[in-house]
Amino acid sequence: MLSMSIILIVFFITLVIAILSGLIFLIPSVPIKYIKIHLYLIVLPIIISVIGLLNVSDREQIGPFTMDHLAWLMGSFILILDFIIQKFSVRYLIGDRNYRKYFPLFTLITSFASIAWLSGDLRLMVLFWGATLLSLTLLIRVNRSWKIPYEAAKVSGKSFALGWLSLLVAVILLYVATGNWHINVTLANDDVITSGMRFIIDMLIVLAVIVPAAQFPFQSWLIESVAAPTPVSAIMHAGIVNAGGIILTRFSPVFNDPLAITILLIIASISVLLGSGISLVHVDYKRQLVGSTMSQMGFMLVQCALGVYSAAIIHLILHGVFKATLFLQSGS
User: Fold this and answer.
1) 20 to 30 A from 38, CA-CA: which of 46, 201, 233, 288?
2) CB 57: neighbour CB atoms within 10 A?
3) How many CA atoms are closer than 13 Å to the CA of 187, on its beta-carbon side?
4) pTM, whole model, 2 decimals?
5) Average pLDDT over residues 180-185
6) What does the DSSP assignment read for 191-241?
7) Cα 45 versus chain centre, distance
8) Alpha-helical regions (H) of 229-284
9) pLDDT digits (tens, 9 = 90+) for 184-233
């Protein structure tokens, strides 16, 4: 068994290499053929994350990071999808005037998301989740000369800001109630959180989850975002909208207020019906996929509300792979 500390250090080194490789590709003098080298480099953190998944046994805290099966599983899943989407984009986006900008943003989104789910420190998780959402907004608005995706990015950015601020406030209130920023210690102290404070924290978590999951009444950002290129839609539907399942799983020890759970069930159920209706009435294939995603994310949140977190994680992984495949094939 390899030391988890060594694996974590090597993982961050390879992640930094992948990010720098994407930024190097932004330099106009760097030849387009360099993208093949970049693809090789983004495989490195995938290999290390899989090694981490195979070597993890018990939950282990290393500094601000939590090493457990969920963290390495999500890291591996997100990075593998990133490689598939970037590989697809090499030929699909060729000729786009912003060709060089897509790949570093893809890399930043998945790198920040991986770090967020590895973070045991709530401050670090919120920081990198915010960086993920910011990078996604920039990715949607890459083509500023086209008004439709530019406006979609504005709608998405406002929605993301609301969801992120909700998570930030929830984390601050958790610290006020428990005096600790770490997930495994903070959320274990159930007895120190009053019922009123617990309800407020849980409702903020619900808001932080339903916004990126495009649940009612925040579904408009995902519908508008279909104007972005297909690989952008693929990475959104495969690795971002399903993050609500991960957030609820991480916060599961404190997410147990009956009223907040009931509200989440109602919102998710409405979203399932609304998403199904969108799939039935829209003739645009990508919008049909948006409706499908809304429904599936609603089912995933219902699973979380019922406390079946393992099923929700399996659901989000399978949905991510399936929906990414459908989006990448949407042109045909």
Assistant:
1) 233
2) 10
3) 20
4) 0.91
5) 70
6) GGS-HHHHHHHHHHHHHHHHTTTT-TTS-HHHHHGGGS-HHHHHHHHHHTT
7) 17
8) 230-239, 243-250, 258-281
9) 645 555 567 788 888 999 999 999 999 988 898 888 888 877 777 888 88
